[in-house]
């Protein structure tokens, strides 16, 4: 329940909408009960009045007033139901949108240090399916429970005026149906409901893996094996879902049984009261119809409670991510960023985990502002890890990284990232236009600045050739542009950001030698007054730098000055 309470706090800004939805639901439920109750009374009273008239007695029955009341109640119920659906769903969508953007905010300090350890399919599940599952908290649980609680009080008071015994029995049965039954079905269904969340998340992880690796699976003719695996997974999910559905059916049947039992007792008690002259015939019908209608208040609760485990599990999964400690701590009083950008590493050692051993071992290095270095070395030797420490994605285990003589841990990490322009082999292009991808680096860039960046990155001819120019859609992750074009778009972004320190991590990996030469030429012009730290496997870019180091087994050795 703690997890749900945590999320209820996030519901607060929408309390107006939420309360409005509950009030409308209550109005609708009461109108529906009153409609059936009054109709029962009206039909009986009309029949009796008719019989009296047939006997030749004078008819003194007012048909008009109850008929008008019934019409008013029917209209209230219809409009109320419409309004309730609109308001409760609007409230839910607002709450979910709020939680989604709150969750996104929680991810920012976790990038990339913590999130790199999570699988993207799992994170996607938490961001989408798990947050969606929270809709049940208000729609299926809070709102119906509030309506049931108030409704039961209204109905019991109303019935007590006519038949106190019926009111008592009815109240007791309604409490059993709204508290005890949901509690039992919550206990019975919790395991299955939680299992559904886990299975669905794992299913999504597998599906994402399959879709991302589809080309390789087809090339290796391994598609059949993996799709068979998905089939088995689906069967497993269907089985768990089937058990849940069976339990739902039992809970509905049980509540229906309770309602029929209550009706039977109410019928007997009303008949006895009629016999003893305590209730008129129409009033006895009124009491019985009221009992029938009142059970509508509690019908949805057992099923909602049975699936509460799903909502709880989803809430726990979202909370787990939001409570992960960031890889780097925020200083209490961050220093203002320096105006010089001399970098220094003093005896820096680092490991990703205790089990894994050291990736960087006692590295010391000075890069004055405007200095240009390259780091070469075998794959897995720790080159990228070193770059990540310089940008403070992680803190060193020992030693420190300094900028202008200050430990970078004393700066606000968000602010500090503005000092770095990054170009790597994996520069992400978003499913948007070229222009939107460029504006990411400088949202207020003018047309002249955009054109200058395009020209400097050697994209001019490519853009001129496109019918839609800068407004061309690059597709999901930039699939509609070639690797070289994508790298140039990333390069243009680097120009627009115009940061004083350039971090180049294999910037030309995967490009042909002509494109590589062009990219390095463009970089050489742009980087003349900037600090450059480049990681490369290839010799072509070494002309850009003054000093070359070799990284091997976590240690850095100067090989060329
Ligand atoms: N997020 C991570 N969590 C755990 N281990 C990691 C992580 N990132 C890298 N490593 C490990 O740290 C070591 C150094 O990796 P790093 O990426 O820094 O090497 P690299 O020299 O840049 O390699 P490459 O040239 O192939 O890009 C490797 O053994 C790698 O498996």
From TrEMBL:
Membrane topology type: Multi-pass membrane protein
Residue ranges of every copy of the ABC transmembrane type-1 domain listed in the record: 19-310
Annotated localization: Cell membrane
Domain of life: Bacteria
Main location: membrane
Transmembrane region(s): 41-65, 137-162, 168-185, 247-272, 284-301
CDD domains, A to Z: ABC_6TM_CydC
Keywords: ATP-binding, Membrane, Nucleotide-binding, Transmembrane, Transmembrane helix
Sequence ranges assigned to domain ABC transporter in this UniProt record: 343-559
NCBIfam families on file: CydC
Protein's name in the database: Thiol reductant ABC exporter subunit CydC
Organism (species): Candidatus Methylobacter oryzae
Gene, per the UniProt record: cydC
